[in-house]
Amino acid sequence: MGILITIEGVDGAGKHTLSRGLTLAWEAEGLDVLRMGFPRYGESLHADLAAEALHGEHGDLSSSVFAMAALFALDRHDAARDLRRLVNRNDVVLLDRYAASNAAYSAARLNEGAEGAAVEWVRALEFDRFAIPVPDVQVLLRVPVEVAAERARSREEQDASRERDTYERDESLQHRTAQVYDELAARSWVSPWLVVEGSFDVAQLAANVLNQRVEQQEVTR
């Protein structure tokens, strides 16, 4: 039985780079690591509908916070069985975004905090009703929103296929989302969190993430 680890953060935070670094560090220790990301664009109908809406298609779909959140949640619902199987077959399953992303962005769009109704709605929908696997550890990659926004703009300039969506273009939304993420981490929403910011040693972080899981197991015995 492996462990499920998620990486969270605003758009442009560097989650993909961090997940790649953690994967290499764990593989160097002889662990079997599987890495995947949400939303599963190009694989999930629900994710693709959400992406299209965020680029101006499907009428006023993107204006509905709960409709968009439901599409992202349904993407994870469809992947839940495979996720459980992958956790059973690998030492580590590492996810770039998960349910906390849905909670943070939904709350931020409604100008709510982590204690608000939107966050609880996402938790109840995804973990209770859809029964998606609960992450063992959630890693929040905290970077200044301005830095993350510049990275997103740079990606768009260098690759036409990486055109920023409605969320990525809204810097105010990104600031509010970052605040909700901080609150989710402080509240240990759903499961334990690790907050990463500034410069850090990837190998040490990889060890810290696994150690946190071991400590959690010892506490619950």
From TrEMBL:
Region entry Disordered, spans: 152-171
EC number: 2.7.4.9
GO BP: any one term: dUDP biosynthetic process
Similarity annotation: Belongs to the thymidylate kinase family.
Pfam families, alphabetized: Thymidylate_kin
Gene: tmk
Keywords annotated in UniProt: ATP-binding, Kinase, Nucleotide biosynthesis, Nucleotide-binding, Transferase
Functional summary from the UniProt entry: Phosphorylation of dTMP to form dTDP in both de novo and salvage pathways of dTTP synthesis.
Lineage of producing organism: Bacteria, Bacillati, Actinomycetota, Actinomycetes, Mycobacteriales
A single GO cellular-component term on record: cytosol
Start and end residues of each Thymidylate kinase-like domain: 7-189
Protein name: Thymidylate kinase
Organism of provenance: Antrihabitans stalactiti
InterPro entries per record: P-loop_NTPase, Thymidylate_kin-like_dom, Thymidylate_kin_CS, Thymidylate_kinase
Catalyzed reaction equations: dTMP + ATP = dTDP + ADP
MF terms in GO: ATP binding; dTMP kinase activity
